[in-house]
Design goal:
By secondary structure, the protein is an all-alpha fold. The protein has 8 helices and no strands. The protein starts with a helix and ends in a 10-residue tail after the last helix.
Length: about 200
């Protein structure tokens, strides 16, 4: 249920991004926030409003269902969405909402890369995630941890590529909604195939 809720804001964002006329300055969601809109990017502005509302609702539900708490990753995603979404709407400039995903992935990359230096046992973040199911050497955990950091750096680059470099951002919406998930799931699938011999037995 929690995983499905996480996809709701992305689906709403993608739907509005693809269906709203970029020149529609009178969309109800723009009027809701008293925005005059932009020149030819109103589909992104409307989608940003929808994304922010959906994020607040979904994370509000998660906050209640998780006994009035959110984990650090959820707070980071919510915070960056609201901040960069707010800047995007205030300036009517889609640059900032496009930049958000790239910076968010860099933040995750930094969290993985620097995690061994900020824990008492020097354990990398990936060990905390997969320690219960994988049996690896210290060097193995280190390599896997840097592999995840590298994956998030790649994701950040891909967001920049599709947002600013490739065909003037024509397919940025598609990549933001589905492309990064495909990259993530592909990475996880390959990782589990390569590490299948290191899974702990059910008894462990």
């Amino acid at each position: 249920m929690k995983a499905l809720l996480d996809f709701v804001p992305l689906i709403i964002f993608f739907y509005l991004y693809k269906t709203v006329d970029p020149k529609d300055t009178h969309h109800p969601l723009l009027q809701l926030i008293h925005s005059t809109g932009g020149v030819d990017n109103n589909n992104i502005l409307v989608a940003t409003v929808g994304l922010m509302i959906a994020m607040l609702v979904v994370y509000g539900v998660l906050f209640v269902s998780q006994k009035f708490r959110l984990d650090k990753q959820q707070w980071l995603i919510l915070f960056m969405t609201i901040i960069f979404g707010g800047i995007t709407l205030a300036l009517s400039d889609d640059f900032y909402i496009k930049l958000k995903a790239a910076l968010l992935n860099l933040a995750f990359a930094g969290a993985f890369a620097l995690s061994p230096f900020f824990t008492k046992d020097r354990a990398p973040l990936i060990k905390r995630m997969f320690g219960p199911v994988l049996e690896l050497s210290q060097a193995g955990w280190k390599k896997l941890n840097y592999a995840w950091a590298g994956m998030f750096v790649l994701m950040s680059f891909l967001h920049v590529f599709f947002a600013f470099l490739f065909m003037h951002g024509k397919y940025w919406g598609e990549f933001s909604a589905f492309g990064d998930m495909i990259v993530m799931f592909s990475f996880i699938a390959i990782q589990f195939i390569l590490l299948r011999k290191h899974f702990k037995s059910p008894e462990e």
